[in-house]
Amino acid sequence: MSSKSFLSVIITIVLVSVLTSCKGVKTNEAISEHKKPNILFIAVDDLRPELNFYGANHIKSPNLNKLAGESLVFNRAYCNIPVCGASRASLMTGARPTRKRFINAHIKKDEDYPEAISLPMLLKNDGYTTISNGKIYHYKNDDAKAWDEIWHPNSLWDYALPKSQDIRKNTKRGLPFEAAKVHDSVYRDGKTALKVINDLRKLRASNQPFFLTMGLSKPHLPFTAPKKYWDLYNRDEIELPESYVQPKTTPKQAFHNFGELRQYENIPKRGDLPEALAKELIHGYYACVSYIDAQIGLVLEELKRLELEDETIVILWGDHGWNLGDHKLWCKHVTFETALKTPLIIKVPGKTKGQKTEAITEYIDIYPSLAELVGLDIPNTVEGKSFVPILNGQKSEKNWAISKFKDAVTLIKDDLFYTEWTDDKGIAYARMLFDHKKDPLELDNLAEKPEYQGKVQKLSIELRNKWGKDFLNN
Known about the structure:
It holds the Pfam family Sulfatase. This protein is an alpha/beta fold. It has a single domain (37-398), classed as Alkaline Phosphatase, subunit A. The chain contains 14 helices and 19 strands. The longest helix is centred in the N-terminal third of the chain and has 32 residues, at 3-34.
Protein backbone atom coordinates (compact mmCIF):
# COMPACT_ATOMS: atom_id res chain seq x y z
CA MET A 1 0.00 0.00 0.00
CA SER A 2 1.33 3.40 -0.95
CA SER A 3 1.95 5.98 1.73
CA LYS A 4 -0.80 8.12 0.16
CA SER A 5 -3.35 5.28 0.35
CA PHE A 6 -2.32 4.45 3.91
CA LEU A 7 -2.82 8.09 4.89
CA SER A 8 -6.32 8.05 3.36
CA VAL A 9 -7.27 4.98 5.39
CA ILE A 10 -6.04 6.60 8.60
CA ILE A 11 -7.99 9.80 7.85
CA THR A 12 -11.14 7.75 7.15
CA ILE A 13 -10.81 5.85 10.44
CA VAL A 14 -10.32 9.07 12.38
CA LEU A 15 -13.32 10.72 10.71
CA VAL A 16 -15.56 7.73 11.41
CA SER A 17 -14.40 7.71 15.01
CA VAL A 18 -15.07 11.44 15.41
CA LEU A 19 -18.49 11.22 13.77
CA THR A 20 -19.47 8.25 15.89
CA SER A 21 -18.33 10.07 19.00
CA CYS A 22 -20.25 13.19 18.02
CA LYS A 23 -23.33 11.14 17.29
CA GLY A 24 -23.11 9.62 20.75
CA VAL A 25 -22.86 13.02 22.35
CA LYS A 26 -25.89 14.25 20.46
CA THR A 27 -27.88 11.19 21.48
CA ASN A 28 -26.99 11.71 25.16
CA GLU A 29 -27.88 15.37 24.91
CA ALA A 30 -31.22 14.49 23.36
CA ILE A 31 -31.97 12.11 26.22
CA SER A 32 -31.00 14.78 28.72
CA GLU A 33 -33.19 17.34 26.96
CA HIS A 34 -36.23 15.09 26.95
CA LYS A 35 -35.93 13.82 30.53
CA LYS A 36 -37.66 16.10 32.99
CA PRO A 37 -35.42 17.65 35.66
CA ASN A 38 -35.14 16.02 39.04
CA ILE A 39 -35.99 18.01 42.17
CA LEU A 40 -34.06 17.83 45.44
CA PHE A 41 -36.38 19.45 47.98
CA ILE A 42 -34.66 20.45 51.24
CA ALA A 43 -36.96 21.56 54.08
CA VAL A 44 -35.42 22.93 57.28
CA ASP A 45 -37.39 23.30 60.51
CA ASP A 46 -37.27 26.70 62.28
CA LEU A 47 -34.45 28.10 60.13
CA ARG A 48 -34.36 31.90 60.18
CA PRO A 49 -32.49 33.83 57.47
CA GLU A 50 -29.60 34.61 59.80
CA LEU A 51 -27.04 33.35 57.30
CA ASN A 52 -24.00 34.67 55.49
CA PHE A 53 -25.76 35.25 52.18
CA TYR A 54 -28.36 37.33 54.04
CA GLY A 55 -25.69 39.55 55.53
CA ALA A 56 -25.06 37.77 58.85
CA ASN A 57 -21.45 36.65 59.14
CA HIS A 58 -21.37 34.98 62.56
CA ILE A 59 -23.02 31.61 61.77
CA LYS A 60 -20.69 29.12 60.13
CA SER A 61 -22.53 27.51 57.23
CA PRO A 62 -20.08 27.02 54.34
CA ASN A 63 -22.25 24.53 52.45
CA LEU A 64 -25.31 26.76 52.48
CA ASN A 65 -23.11 29.64 51.39
CA LYS A 66 -21.79 27.59 48.45
CA LEU A 67 -25.31 26.53 47.43
CA ALA A 68 -26.50 30.14 47.61
CA GLY A 69 -23.62 31.13 45.32
CA GLU A 70 -25.05 28.76 42.69
CA SER A 71 -28.68 29.68 43.23
CA LEU A 72 -31.22 32.47 43.08
CA VAL A 73 -31.47 33.86 46.62
CA PHE A 74 -34.78 35.39 47.69
CA ASN A 75 -34.06 38.26 50.05
CA ARG A 76 -37.75 38.78 50.79
CA ALA A 77 -39.42 35.38 51.08
CA TYR A 78 -42.24 34.97 53.61
CA CYS A 79 -44.10 31.98 54.96
CA ASN A 80 -47.88 32.22 54.89
CA ILE A 81 -48.28 30.83 58.43
CA PRO A 82 -45.53 30.93 61.11
CA VAL A 83 -46.14 27.43 62.49
CA CYS A 84 -44.82 24.20 61.02
CA GLY A 85 -47.83 21.99 60.24
CA ALA A 86 -49.90 24.73 58.66
CA SER A 87 -46.96 26.28 56.82
CA ARG A 88 -45.98 22.97 55.24
CA ALA A 89 -49.51 22.04 54.20
CA SER A 90 -50.00 25.48 52.65
CA LEU A 91 -46.70 25.29 50.77
CA MET A 92 -47.36 21.76 49.49
CA THR A 93 -50.82 22.70 48.18
CA GLY A 94 -50.00 26.26 47.10
CA ALA A 95 -53.11 27.39 48.98
CA ARG A 96 -53.58 30.25 51.43
CA PRO A 97 -54.63 29.80 55.03
CA THR A 98 -58.13 30.91 55.95
CA ARG A 99 -59.98 31.44 59.24
CA LYS A 100 -60.44 27.68 59.57
CA ARG A 101 -57.91 26.10 57.18
CA PHE A 102 -54.22 25.70 57.99
CA ILE A 103 -54.36 27.25 61.44
CA ASN A 104 -51.86 25.45 63.70
CA ALA A 105 -49.00 22.96 63.98
CA HIS A 106 -51.20 19.90 64.16
CA ILE A 107 -53.29 20.18 61.02
CA LYS A 108 -53.17 17.60 58.23
CA LYS A 109 -53.40 18.35 54.54
CA ASP A 110 -55.66 15.32 54.15
CA GLU A 111 -58.14 16.76 56.66
CA ASP A 112 -57.92 20.48 55.92
CA TYR A 113 -57.80 20.37 52.12
CA PRO A 114 -58.26 16.78 50.88
CA GLU A 115 -59.44 17.84 47.41
CA ALA A 116 -56.24 19.75 46.64
CA ILE A 117 -53.68 18.00 44.44
CA SER A 118 -50.45 18.39 46.38
CA LEU A 119 -47.11 19.11 44.73
CA PRO A 120 -45.79 15.56 45.24
CA MET A 121 -49.04 14.10 43.92
CA LEU A 122 -48.84 16.30 40.81
CA LEU A 123 -45.30 15.07 40.21
CA LYS A 124 -46.10 11.45 40.96
CA ASN A 125 -48.98 11.53 38.48
CA ASP A 126 -46.50 12.74 35.87
CA GLY A 127 -44.13 9.81 36.39
CA TYR A 128 -41.84 11.18 39.06
CA THR A 129 -40.53 8.91 41.80
CA THR A 130 -41.53 10.70 45.01
CA ILE A 131 -39.73 10.02 48.29
CA SER A 132 -40.47 11.74 51.60
CA ASN A 133 -37.50 11.68 53.99
CA GLY A 134 -37.75 13.17 57.47
CA LYS A 135 -40.09 16.01 58.30
CA ILE A 136 -41.90 17.22 55.19
CA TYR A 137 -45.45 17.34 56.46
CA HIS A 138 -45.92 17.61 60.22
CA TYR A 139 -47.41 14.11 60.36
CA LYS A 140 -45.56 11.21 58.78
CA ASN A 141 -48.49 9.68 56.93
CA ASP A 142 -50.20 12.87 55.79
CA ASP A 143 -50.79 12.89 52.01
CA ALA A 144 -49.51 9.30 51.98
CA LYS A 145 -50.83 8.48 48.50
CA ALA A 146 -48.57 11.16 47.00
CA TRP A 147 -45.40 9.30 47.95
CA ASP A 148 -43.75 6.17 46.61
CA GLU A 149 -41.91 5.97 49.92
CA ILE A 150 -42.15 7.67 53.33
CA TRP A 151 -39.22 7.38 55.73
CA HIS A 152 -38.57 8.88 59.16
CA PRO A 153 -35.44 8.44 61.29
CA ASN A 154 -35.56 6.72 64.66
CA SER A 155 -33.58 8.83 67.11
CA LEU A 156 -34.91 8.52 70.70
CA TRP A 157 -36.29 12.06 70.81
CA ASP A 158 -33.02 13.32 69.29
CA TYR A 159 -30.97 12.98 72.44
CA ALA A 160 -27.67 11.09 72.27
CA LEU A 161 -26.76 10.79 75.96
CA PRO A 162 -28.52 8.17 78.15
CA LYS A 163 -28.98 10.76 80.90
CA SER A 164 -30.76 13.12 78.50
CA GLN A 165 -32.89 10.26 77.19
CA ASP A 166 -33.96 9.35 80.73
CA ILE A 167 -34.94 12.94 81.48
CA ARG A 168 -36.97 13.05 78.26
CA LYS A 169 -38.65 9.75 79.15
CA ASN A 170 -39.77 11.14 82.51
CA THR A 171 -40.74 14.67 81.48
CA LYS A 172 -42.85 16.30 78.78
CA ARG A 173 -40.06 17.63 76.56
CA GLY A 174 -36.69 16.96 78.22
CA LEU A 175 -33.67 19.25 78.19
CA PRO A 176 -33.62 22.24 75.81
CA PHE A 177 -30.10 21.46 74.57
CA GLU A 178 -27.36 18.84 74.45
CA ALA A 179 -23.76 18.82 73.21
CA ALA A 180 -22.51 15.25 72.91
CA LYS A 181 -19.20 13.90 71.59
CA VAL A 182 -20.84 11.66 69.01
CA HIS A 183 -20.81 11.09 65.27
CA ASP A 184 -23.19 13.21 63.20
CA SER A 185 -25.28 10.15 62.34
CA VAL A 186 -26.29 9.59 65.96
CA TYR A 187 -28.74 12.47 65.74
CA ARG A 188 -31.81 12.48 63.49
CA ASP A 189 -30.56 14.77 60.74
CA GLY A 190 -27.34 12.80 60.31
CA LYS A 191 -29.43 9.68 59.72
CA THR A 192 -31.57 11.60 57.24
CA ALA A 193 -28.54 12.74 55.25
CA LEU A 194 -27.32 9.14 54.92
CA LYS A 195 -30.76 8.03 53.76
CA VAL A 196 -30.94 10.76 51.10
CA ILE A 197 -27.44 9.87 49.88
CA ASN A 198 -28.47 6.23 49.56
CA ASP A 199 -31.61 7.27 47.67
CA LEU A 200 -29.56 9.33 45.22
CA ARG A 201 -27.41 6.31 44.43
CA LYS A 202 -30.48 4.18 43.74
CA LEU A 203 -32.30 6.85 41.75
CA ARG A 204 -29.32 7.52 39.51
CA ALA A 205 -29.85 4.19 37.79
CA SER A 206 -33.50 4.95 37.07
CA ASN A 207 -34.84 6.53 33.91
CA GLN A 208 -37.55 8.24 35.93
CA PRO A 209 -37.18 11.79 37.19
CA PHE A 210 -37.35 12.08 40.96
CA PHE A 211 -38.77 14.36 43.62
CA LEU A 212 -36.48 13.57 46.53
CA THR A 213 -36.98 15.35 49.84
CA MET A 214 -34.70 15.98 52.78
CA GLY A 215 -36.68 17.09 55.82
CA LEU A 216 -34.29 18.34 58.49
CA SER A 217 -35.48 18.69 62.09
CA LYS A 218 -32.87 21.15 63.32
CA PRO A 219 -32.51 23.92 64.34
CA HIS A 220 -35.89 23.10 65.97
CA LEU A 221 -35.83 22.59 69.72
CA PRO A 222 -34.23 20.83 71.49
CA PHE A 223 -30.92 22.29 70.39
CA THR A 224 -29.07 18.98 70.26
CA ALA A 225 -26.00 18.62 68.07
CA PRO A 226 -22.54 17.04 68.22
CA LYS A 227 -20.21 18.99 70.47
CA LYS A 228 -17.85 19.91 67.62
CA TYR A 229 -20.52 22.24 66.25
CA TRP A 230 -20.98 23.93 69.62
CA ASP A 231 -17.20 24.39 69.70
CA LEU A 232 -17.37 26.55 66.58
CA TYR A 233 -18.73 29.41 68.69
CA ASN A 234 -17.53 31.41 71.69
CA ARG A 235 -20.49 32.09 73.95
CA ASP A 236 -18.77 35.13 75.41
CA GLU A 237 -19.10 36.77 72.00
CA ILE A 238 -22.84 36.08 71.70
CA GLU A 239 -25.10 39.07 72.31
CA LEU A 240 -28.81 39.46 72.83
CA PRO A 241 -30.60 41.04 69.85
CA GLU A 242 -30.89 44.80 69.55
CA SER A 243 -34.68 44.38 69.57
CA TYR A 244 -34.69 42.76 73.04
CA VAL A 245 -37.61 44.95 74.16
CA GLN A 246 -41.42 45.03 74.04
CA PRO A 247 -42.53 48.62 73.31
CA LYS A 248 -45.77 49.79 74.93
CA THR A 249 -47.10 50.99 71.56
CA THR A 250 -47.23 47.38 70.29
CA PRO A 251 -50.56 45.59 70.91
CA LYS A 252 -50.44 43.03 73.70
CA GLN A 253 -51.86 40.49 71.22
CA ALA A 254 -48.52 40.52 69.41
CA PHE A 255 -46.72 38.87 72.31
CA HIS A 256 -46.95 35.40 73.82
CA ASN A 257 -45.41 33.34 76.60
CA PHE A 258 -43.42 31.10 74.17
CA GLY A 259 -45.05 28.00 75.61
CA GLU A 260 -43.17 25.75 73.20
CA LEU A 261 -39.90 26.59 74.95
CA ARG A 262 -41.40 26.72 78.47
CA GLN A 263 -42.19 23.00 78.28
CA TYR A 264 -38.50 22.10 78.37
CA GLU A 265 -36.67 21.40 81.60
CA ASN A 266 -34.91 24.25 83.46
CA ILE A 267 -36.80 26.96 81.55
CA PRO A 268 -38.69 29.45 83.78
CA LYS A 269 -42.46 29.15 83.40
CA ARG A 270 -42.97 32.89 83.10
CA GLY A 271 -41.04 36.12 82.63
CA ASP A 272 -37.85 36.96 80.78
CA LEU A 273 -35.12 34.36 80.56
CA PRO A 274 -31.92 34.92 82.54
CA GLU A 275 -29.31 36.41 80.24
CA ALA A 276 -26.94 33.44 80.59
CA LEU A 277 -29.70 31.01 79.63
CA ALA A 278 -30.74 33.20 76.70
CA LYS A 279 -27.18 33.19 75.35
CA GLU A 280 -26.91 29.43 75.84
CA LEU A 281 -30.04 28.96 73.75
CA ILE A 282 -28.69 31.23 71.01
CA HIS A 283 -25.42 29.27 71.13
CA GLY A 284 -27.35 26.02 70.73
CA TYR A 285 -29.32 27.39 67.80
CA TYR A 286 -26.12 28.40 66.02
CA ALA A 287 -24.60 24.96 66.65
CA CYS A 288 -27.65 23.26 65.15
CA VAL A 289 -27.50 25.41 62.03
CA SER A 290 -23.85 24.46 61.53
CA TYR A 291 -24.78 20.81 62.09
CA ILE A 292 -27.51 20.74 59.45
CA ASP A 293 -25.24 22.71 57.12
CA ALA A 294 -22.77 19.83 57.26
CA GLN A 295 -25.52 17.29 56.46
CA ILE A 296 -26.69 19.34 53.49
CA GLY A 297 -23.09 19.50 52.32
CA LEU A 298 -22.80 15.71 52.32
CA VAL A 299 -25.90 15.36 50.17
CA LEU A 300 -24.87 18.07 47.69
CA GLU A 301 -21.41 16.54 47.41
CA GLU A 302 -22.98 13.18 46.55
CA LEU A 303 -25.28 14.81 44.00
CA LYS A 304 -22.18 16.18 42.30
CA ARG A 305 -20.21 12.93 42.57
CA LEU A 306 -23.04 11.03 40.90
CA GLU A 307 -23.07 13.60 38.07
CA LEU A 308 -26.69 14.51 38.77
CA GLU A 309 -26.06 18.22 39.34
CA ASP A 310 -26.82 19.34 35.80
CA GLU A 311 -30.22 17.66 35.72
CA THR A 312 -31.45 18.43 39.24
CA ILE A 313 -33.23 21.50 40.59
CA VAL A 314 -32.26 22.09 44.23
CA ILE A 315 -34.60 24.13 46.39
CA LEU A 316 -34.04 24.88 50.08
CA TRP A 317 -36.52 26.55 52.42
CA GLY A 318 -37.20 26.97 56.12
CA ASP A 319 -40.81 26.45 57.16
CA HIS A 320 -40.91 29.83 58.98
CA GLY A 321 -38.67 32.20 60.89
CA TRP A 322 -37.82 31.98 64.59
CA ASN A 323 -37.38 34.44 67.43
CA LEU A 324 -34.06 34.32 69.26
CA GLY A 325 -34.95 36.88 71.89
CA ASP A 326 -36.29 39.37 69.32
CA HIS A 327 -39.00 41.42 71.07
CA LYS A 328 -38.10 39.31 74.12
CA LEU A 329 -39.77 36.40 72.35
CA TRP A 330 -38.65 32.87 71.56
CA CYS A 331 -40.01 30.43 68.98
CA LYS A 332 -42.47 31.51 66.25
CA HIS A 333 -46.28 32.01 66.51
CA VAL A 334 -46.28 35.78 65.85
CA THR A 335 -46.48 38.06 62.82
CA PHE A 336 -43.32 40.05 63.46
CA GLU A 337 -40.93 39.79 60.53
CA THR A 338 -38.59 37.58 62.58
CA ALA A 339 -41.20 34.80 62.46
CA LEU A 340 -42.44 35.45 58.91
CA LYS A 341 -39.25 36.03 56.93
CA THR A 342 -37.63 32.83 55.72
CA PRO A 343 -34.61 31.56 53.82
CA LEU A 344 -35.46 30.50 50.27
CA ILE A 345 -32.92 29.59 47.60
CA ILE A 346 -33.32 27.68 44.34
CA LYS A 347 -30.62 26.29 42.09
CA VAL A 348 -31.75 25.68 38.50
CA PRO A 349 -29.08 24.28 36.18
CA GLY A 350 -28.24 26.74 33.44
CA LYS A 351 -30.24 29.57 35.00
CA THR A 352 -28.85 30.46 38.44
CA LYS A 353 -25.39 31.58 39.52
CA GLY A 354 -25.76 33.46 42.79
CA GLN A 355 -28.28 36.10 41.77
CA LYS A 356 -30.37 37.80 44.45
CA THR A 357 -33.87 39.20 44.19
CA GLU A 358 -35.73 41.71 46.33
CA ALA A 359 -39.07 40.57 44.92
CA ILE A 360 -41.58 39.79 47.68
CA THR A 361 -42.29 36.08 47.46
CA GLU A 362 -44.79 33.94 49.38
CA TYR A 363 -44.41 30.25 50.11
CA ILE A 364 -47.53 29.46 48.11
CA ASP A 365 -45.48 30.64 45.09
CA ILE A 366 -43.13 27.64 45.35
CA TYR A 367 -45.63 25.07 44.04
CA PRO A 368 -46.53 26.84 40.77
CA SER A 369 -42.88 27.74 40.18
CA LEU A 370 -41.67 24.13 40.40
CA ALA A 371 -44.62 22.95 38.31
CA GLU A 372 -43.74 25.46 35.60
CA LEU A 373 -40.07 24.54 35.68
CA VAL A 374 -40.88 20.88 34.94
CA GLY A 375 -43.57 21.72 32.39
CA LEU A 376 -46.74 20.78 34.28
CA ASP A 377 -50.11 22.49 34.32
CA ILE A 378 -50.95 24.14 37.63
CA PRO A 379 -54.15 22.93 39.38
CA ASN A 380 -56.86 25.55 39.95
CA THR A 381 -56.61 25.07 43.75
CA VAL A 382 -53.16 26.67 43.68
CA GLU A 383 -53.28 30.34 44.69
CA GLY A 384 -49.60 31.19 44.42
CA LYS A 385 -47.88 32.97 41.53
CA SER A 386 -44.89 31.45 39.75
CA PHE A 387 -41.55 33.19 40.26
CA VAL A 388 -40.07 31.64 37.07
CA PRO A 389 -40.09 35.07 35.35
CA ILE A 390 -37.54 36.19 37.98
CA LEU A 391 -35.36 33.19 37.09
CA ASN A 392 -35.56 34.34 33.47
CA GLY A 393 -34.27 37.78 34.40
CA GLN A 394 -37.60 39.56 34.31
CA LYS A 395 -38.92 41.94 36.93
CA SER A 396 -41.55 40.58 39.29
CA GLU A 397 -44.92 42.29 39.09
CA LYS A 398 -45.77 41.27 42.67
CA ASN A 399 -44.87 43.55 45.59
CA TRP A 400 -46.93 42.04 48.40
CA ALA A 401 -47.52 38.94 50.54
CA ILE A 402 -50.10 37.83 53.10
CA SER A 403 -49.25 35.93 56.28
CA LYS A 404 -51.54 34.80 59.08
CA PHE A 405 -51.37 33.37 62.57
CA LYS A 406 -54.63 32.77 64.47
CA ASP A 407 -56.54 36.09 64.44
CA ALA A 408 -53.57 38.11 63.16
CA VAL A 409 -53.37 38.71 59.40
CA THR A 410 -50.45 40.63 57.94
CA LEU A 411 -50.11 42.45 54.64
CA ILE A 412 -46.50 42.87 53.58
CA LYS A 413 -46.26 45.51 50.88
CA ASP A 414 -43.07 47.26 49.84
CA ASP A 415 -41.53 48.44 53.14
CA LEU A 416 -44.77 48.30 55.14
CA PHE A 417 -45.90 45.52 57.50
CA TYR A 418 -49.56 45.96 58.41
CA THR A 419 -51.32 43.53 60.79
CA GLU A 420 -54.93 43.32 61.91
CA TRP A 421 -56.34 41.01 64.55
CA THR A 422 -59.82 40.16 63.30
CA ASP A 423 -62.83 38.19 64.54
CA ASP A 424 -64.87 35.63 62.58
CA LYS A 425 -66.69 38.40 60.73
CA GLY A 426 -63.45 40.06 59.66
CA ILE A 427 -63.81 43.01 62.05
CA ALA A 428 -60.50 44.29 63.39
CA TYR A 429 -59.95 44.62 67.14
CA ALA A 430 -56.20 45.48 67.15
CA ARG A 431 -53.73 46.85 64.61
CA MET A 432 -50.00 47.09 64.04
CA LEU A 433 -48.08 48.98 61.34
CA PHE A 434 -44.33 49.18 60.83
CA ASP A 435 -42.34 51.03 58.20
CA HIS A 436 -39.17 49.00 57.64
CA LYS A 437 -37.45 51.84 55.85
CA LYS A 438 -37.43 53.79 59.12
CA ASP A 439 -37.91 50.99 61.64
CA PRO A 440 -36.49 47.63 60.48
CA LEU A 441 -36.62 46.19 64.02
CA GLU A 442 -40.37 46.86 64.31
CA LEU A 443 -40.24 48.86 67.53
CA ASP A 444 -42.49 51.80 66.61
CA ASN A 445 -46.14 50.86 65.93
CA LEU A 446 -47.64 53.52 63.66
CA ALA A 447 -51.16 52.12 63.45
CA GLU A 448 -52.71 54.31 66.16
CA LYS A 449 -50.92 57.54 65.31
CA PRO A 450 -53.31 60.21 63.92
CA GLU A 451 -51.13 61.06 60.95
CA TYR A 452 -51.22 57.44 59.71
CA GLN A 453 -54.99 56.86 59.83
CA GLY A 454 -55.47 57.46 56.10
CA LYS A 455 -52.69 54.97 55.34
CA VAL A 456 -54.18 52.44 57.78
CA GLN A 457 -57.61 52.65 56.12
CA LYS A 458 -56.14 52.01 52.68
CA LEU A 459 -54.02 49.10 53.94
CA SER A 460 -57.04 47.61 55.73
CA ILE A 461 -59.01 47.55 52.47
CA GLU A 462 -56.07 46.12 50.55
CA LEU A 463 -55.55 43.43 53.19
CA ARG A 464 -59.11 42.20 52.70
CA ASN A 465 -58.79 42.29 48.93
CA LYS A 466 -55.70 40.10 49.06
CA TRP A 467 -56.20 37.66 51.95
CA GLY A 468 -58.06 35.23 49.66
CA LYS A 469 -61.60 34.91 48.35
CA ASP A 470 -62.47 32.10 50.78
CA PHE A 471 -60.78 33.61 53.82
CA LEU A 472 -63.90 34.17 55.95
CA ASN A 473 -66.03 31.34 54.56
CA ASN A 474 -63.64 28.39 54.69
